[in-house]
Structure formats: C-alpha cells, structure tokens
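Record format v2
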Amino acid sequence: MSVIVVLIAVSVLVAAGFLAAFLWAVRNGQFDDKYTPSVRMLFDDEQIKEKKENK
Amino acid sequence: MEKKNTANKKDVLCYHCGDACRDESVEDGGKHFCCSGCKLVYEILRENDLCKYYELGEKPGITPSVRSKVKYEFLDDEQVKKQVLAFSDGKMSVATFLIPQMHCSSCIWLLENMHKLDEGVTYSRVDFPKKKATIKFNEEKTSLRKIAELLDSLGYEPSISLDAAEKKIRSDHTKKLYYKIGVAGFCFGNIMLLSFPEYLGLEKLSDPEFHKLFGFLNLLLSLPVFLYSASEYYISAFKGLKNKIINLDLPVFLGILVSFLRSLYEIVFQTGAGYMDSMAGLVFLLLVGKVFQSKTYDSMNFERTYKSYFPLSVTVIRSGIEATIPLEKLKIGDRILIRNNEIIPVDSILFRGDGSIDYSFVTGESSPVPKVLGEIIYAGGRQTGSLIELEVIKNVSQSYLTGLWNNDTFRKEKASRLKTFSDVISKYFTLATLILAFAGAAYNMQESPDKALNVFTAVLIVACPCALALAIPFTFGNLMRIFGRNKFYVKNTSVVEYLSRTTSIVFDKTGTLTHSGKSDITFRGKNLSAGELSLVKSLTRQSTHPLSRKIYEYLKDEKTLAVTDFSERAGKGISGRIGNNFAVIGSEEFAAGISTVLNETSGDNSSRVYFSVNGESLGYFSIDNSYREGLGDTISALEKKYDLHLLSGDNESERPFLEKYFRDPLQMYFRQSPENKLKYIKALQSEGSSVLMVGDGLNDAGALKQSDIGISISENVSNFSPACDGILEAGEFNKLPDLLKLSKDSIRIIITSFAVSFVYNLVALEIAFRGLLEPIIAAVLMPVSSISVVLFSVLLSNFIAKRRGFR
C-alpha cells in the first residue's frame, strides 16, 4: 500500500509543476493581452521568418 | 501616370481607406484613392514592399490628417522625452504609444512591421485591446519624434500624454488576482482528491495511517489558501469594521476562519476529516467571481483630466527666438505660437493673427468662433486656420477651464455616498447568522458542550454567504457585459448598481441632447440672388446668436459687406443697412411683420429664421436644431420616474423648444459655467438625491465627477471624453431609459438569487442544527449551491436583457 504514498507525492509534484508554469505565465505577461496573439499567429510564415532574421 | 479624375466616381472606393472617391480623387496604376493623403500612405507601403497590408483586411487604411511640420517637435525636448520613454540607456529606447485609430488585423500587421519603414526600429509589438504599440528603437538611427511622425504619416496618430503611469497599478492588481486563483485552484483540487476516501466512506476500511497522512496533507495544502488566496477578504472585512461598516466580506471571513479552525482541530485531534475542501472551494469560487467582476474596457480611459487634452509643450517666443518648452514652465506674459489644429493650453490674449477657435472639447459646439486682436481666448479651444500669436495672462492650472480641477471634488477619490446593496444586506445577514449560531449552541448546551461547539461552528460554516457573494459579482459583471455589447461602457460593476439608485438626472445640452454635426439649413421662399445671400451673411456675421452663427457658417462661400445701423434685439432678431438695402433677419413677427399663428411652432424639430429686405418678406431659413433622434420619447420615458434637470452653458435661445420636452421649466438653467454645474449637482445631492449626470464636454467634467454617476456621451468611443463612470455611444442615447430599467432589474435578480440560495441554506442549517454536518454534505452542498446560484443569476439577467430588447 505504501506505493500510494509515492503516487500521491508524484501527483502533487506534477500538479505543483503546473501551478508553477501558470504562475510563471502570469508573471511573464501572457495573460495581459488575450487578443493580439490570436491575430498575430495568422500572419504568413514568411513574415515571421523575416522578423527573426532582422532581430 | 497620375491624373485628375473627371469620370463619375460614385461607386469607386478608395483603395486605401474605403471611403467613396469624389471628384478630386487621384488614380495610380489602376488603383483609386480618395485623396492624396491616402495615396501617399499607399506609396510608402508599396516602396517598402508592405502591400500585404491590403490583403489582410478589407480597405484597412485610415486617411492621414493634414500634419503640421512641427507637431511633434516637442518630442525632441529632453525633459518631455524622459516622461514619454518607458526606458532608455542612451542607445536603445523603448516607447509605448497609444494609437486610438488601431482597428483591424492589418493595423497590427503594419505596426509590427515598423522596422521595414524605419531602420532604427528594432522591435515593435501591439497590444490590440489596449490599443498600444510598444516600439524599441536605436537612438542613433532614429528618434522618438521621427517615429511619432512616421506613425502620424501612416494615419496612426499617436496620442501622447503624460498621464499613463496610473494604469500599471491596475494591471499589477489583476496579476495578483490570477496568482491567488492559481494557488487556490491547485490546493482545492488536491484537497478534494485527498478527501475522496472520506467521501466514499473508505477510510474505515483502509489503514488509519493513511487517514492521518491525508489529513495532514490536506492541512498543509489548505495553508496557502487560508493565508494567501483569501487574504483580501480579511483585509476588506477589517477595513469595514474599522469604518464601522459590516460588509459582505465579514461573514465570508467568519465562514473561512471557523471552517479552517474547526478542520484544524479535527485533523490534529483525529476526530474527523475537516472541511478544508469546502473552504478551499469557497475561496476559489469567490476569486473566480472577482475576476468576472473585474472586466475592464482597456482601450477606454475613464480618468482623463484636462492634462490629457492639452499638448505637452508649447512654442514660446522669448527675446525673438522661438523655443519649445514644456507646458508647466509657461509663465504669465509669455508669447506663445499656436498653429492650425493646436489646442490653446492657457487663457491668453490674441496678439497677432486671425483667431478662429473651435471649442468642441469644451462645449461640444463644433463651429469655430472668430476672435479678433486683443480678445481673451480661454484655454481648451482649438485654433483652426492660420498661425496665431498669444500673450499668456494666467497660469496653466488657473485658467478658466483648468481652474475647475483645483476644486476639492478632483482632489479626493470619488468615494460613493451610497451604500451598496451588499453593505445593507450583510449587516442583517451577519447578525442573523450569529444569532442562529449562538441559539443553536445554547440549545445544545444541555446535551454536551462538545455538541454545542459542533453546532455553533457548523452553522457558521454553512451560513457563509458564498451564494450571495457570488450572485452579486456575477449579476453585475454580466450586466456590464450586456451594457458593453449595447455600446454603453461602464468603468466597473459598482456603476451598474449605483445606476439603479438614480433619482435625478441632469443633462447638458450642447453635444448631449444635440449632436455635434453640422445642422441642416434650407431656405424656403423666393429664390435668393447672390447679392441677397451676401446681405444675410454680412448681417449674421455681426451677431453671436447661435442661429445667426449657423446661418453664417452655412453661407460661407458668399461675400461679406460692410453693415451700418446694426441693431440686435434680444429674442426678436437683427437688422442693419447694407448699401441701399435695409435688411431684417429674425422671428416671423420681427422680420416679416406678420405672425401666422398656424406656423408658430413648427413641430418638425426645426427653428425658422425669417428674412426681409426693405420691408419685403423673402421667406425663411429652416434650421434643423440637431436634437438627437428620439429625444422626445427618451425624455418623456425618463420624466415619469426621474427628476430631470438641464444645465446648459449656452444662452436661452433654445428654451422655448426645450420647454416642450422638460415638464418643469424651473429646472432648466442656461449660461452655466463649469463651476456652476458642479455646485448645482452638489446642491441636489445635499437634498438627498442620487444624481446621474449626462454630459459630454470638458465643461461638464466637474459635474460628471461630482455626480453619483457621470455618463459621458461620445460620438466616437475612441475619442476624447472627460473623466466619468460610463461612456455611452451617442447613437444609443435613446436607449438610456432601458439601460436604467435594466440596472434596476439587476437588484431584483440578486434578491431572487438570494432567495434561491436561502433555500439551500435552510436545508443546510437544518442539518447543521442537528449536528450532522458531515464533510461530504458540506463538500457537495457548497459548490452545488454556489454554481447553481451563479448559473441562475447569469441566465436570468441574460433573459431579462433579451426581453428588454438588448443584444
């Protein structure tokens, strides 16, 4: 039965990982603008490539 | 290649902006443009291989405004630069521009490809909902001014103001709320998971060691929720108590505290599993409600002061040399230069040039007022026409208009005088809960003190007003969204509630009851010759009566002649001699000599101005008075329930017309200064009225701020509007009565939701009273009642809004 203890520890750790990811995303401003990225991703690939070259 | 177009261009739309091309349109390579400005933008984009702009959206362009060369000169000033730039290390600088014209995906694309137009730009990012573009650039290759000019030349006129610092605080607050939700959600989920054996009754079958382990894990997981996520409620509850107000957060705080302490006791002493799951779930749901409530219209600014209307700097002439200085450094006696389309930042005297001042920011009246040398020009007007030179006679902050902001009303945060619904109800709620808890405890005391404590805590846990605390944000938040869909944008959810308390409504006239567009003028009667028209123009030029000004504007192509023997009789009309002709313009009786009773008040929303020359009546000008459509219906719908007032900065010329609408003529006041308007509202409030102010211009700013709810009417939401609680799009003015009704419904919806949650509470209380509150019952009852109440209030408010004809 002690396997359950291990499983619970793992599951809490995994969940804590997701929590950390969420907090990081909020901190990074990923929830600041929920509209523009949805449009930006529809611009052509070619344009994105050029942008990277120019950086 | 380019040629003037002579063909009929009725159906040709501009390739750039989509406007219809008129006669003066230009053609280039088979593409048509409505003006050379649009063509210029197209050429810039074509040269830089950016024509994809036109593929992304249908006619996405904006006609660039005519630009004066020195418009952005002030951005070269080091001090101004410091205030505008978000970051600068001398080489790399970052600036964030607010660009109200941004409107489609093409805009995003073009603005994010700024580096193709200006080599110095290394990075640009658009935040569309906030209408902001953040641009990083190399100071050696370009400058802030050049970037602003480039944006302007593309039609994206950046709005630069120094007031931007405040917004950051709000975004930090939202972030904190997200952190708290994240933590609460994580803990809530895991606590529930670990409580599953308990729910299923497995704990008796398995090893008691597990039971213990799970209990302590739950305790550990509940700590962040109790200490961090719910902290806002403790602070709010204590703040309320400090101010001797029992707010809704107090019973919430009691519920959280008691359930945590009892669970702590049960887990530590192994007497039960505790209610940590219910506690964490409650906090999580409450925070979700907070997020729902915190919706804001990012692109709109509800906090504008005169500073966001005025330029940041001004050109002065000191000892013959022109220099650009920041506005604060301006002194009395300075000579300043104001160019076409610039705003006069300070009260001053016209020293040189032809003044033609458009006061639409201040009064909503759009036709420019001519000014002659030596006349005082008040701050807030916009010069239209040639360059003028002014001498400053007052400090910027003490000008006629800006002096308003020195009033106490603007110093303090608008603290509402009204108690919110939840404040009222929570007092009784908390009291009732405490009485019930003590009564339950007393009743069970005879049996055993243990059971008494059990009942006492169970009642407090169960009676926690989570349903009420959720019904309020969800109902108001949902209504706020419904308002937004119907082009009424409110600052926050409490505006919806205060709106429902309105007892008096105060209107501004110009720009609020009237629309600011040009009024329609037609002449009925004899066909007037050019000579006769110039008689009319010459005569009306002498008068400041609004109708005279309208006719003068209408006849702008005619010649003006010298007038002698000019006289103006108030309420009747004007007369004067021009050459050999004696012309009279005015009321029917005054100008035509007779009064046909039948036509006296024309019911067609227009005023008539009669015209006669040498005693011969030639006919009348019919002037559409430009009142908003449906004004009569709107006013009469409001009149039944509210006390209506009118405060106008204008003269009394429109009084007879307005009297038809406003039942009580005593409540109409004309020639009101901005200061008067503010005082009038204050007086109404001291009589116990809850005042809704509907205005538009800067001259209403004081009244909008003082009133309980200030709504600003705006022809275009991205345009300027003074500080207010809500912005209503001008075309929706006639929906005002329905919007008010809907806000009243919101209170009823909340009361109904409360009744629903009360049923749950009764059931739960019954269980609590008998001391049978098992964790599983609490864990099921709490989310079920909360979610069903939320669903109920949202669906009911949607349903009622639909029935009232809202989208």
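Chain B touches chain A through 32 residues (CB under 8 Å).
Chain B has 26 helices and 28 strands.
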